[in-house]
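quick one before i forget lol
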Amino acid sequence: MKPTDVHATVANAYTEALERSRAGKTGCCSGASVATPEQVASSAYNGYDGERDKYEEAAASSFGCGNPLAFSGVQPGQTVLDLGSGAGFDLLIASDKVGDTGQVIGVDMTDAMIEAARAAASKAGKANIEVRKGLIEELPVESEEVDWVISNCVVNLSPDKPAVFKEIARVLRPDGRFSIQDIVVEELPQWLRESAAAYSACVAGAISETDYLAGLRAAGFDDVEVTERLVYDKDQIVGMLAGELEHLDFKLEGDALEAALDAVEGKIWSAKFVGGKSRA
């Protein structure tokens, strides 16, 4: 797909996912016609404690694959930028961490998500949250404007990941840090790579952990590491790809389905990437 087609496909998928979450049709039993973003969230470790109860409505529309803010070291008074901020769940948590003297900026390309995030911030009385419309490949953020960049299962959706990594380096202040939770993959079969539905489900567009680290280092980061991994088992992969398996040009069932799952088991996982920008 062309980059513009990728953006449109992803935006449509997440608009539909938000509508389903508002209707209470989330998770692997949503009855969706294709693999959905919420199936990723429901099948992955979330890493949140009391935040989900505190911000229940925003959490219900969160389609991430972990908690990029856990143990992140965000301090009061700092500025946090969330790439692909969605319905605003991580924005609310970041707002608690930076306090009234800090600032939280969300960037998303999907109008429905922007509206939801702004509504969530208003409902929570969060005056320090600003949500901007834009692409993560071309951030509507000034150079060296933020102390932290976070993202939750979004960079894998980008058709130009090197551009995203360069943008992270551009907007971070010297000594700034990032904490990114994302899906990575190894050696996926071609039928899965070519699936638009699997792309929106955070699988088909994902790159390997090795390439992800290399991309961050090429953008100028030299202390990058992976601090967490969760490798998905067959049941979790089925949850992520349930709709896609039903809408292939060929039927996968019985031994063929087991063989397809065997081909991807152990090759899809959630990883947390952390690193920083040096002052030099």
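fyi The domain at 3-272 is CATH 3.40.50.150 (Rossmann fold).
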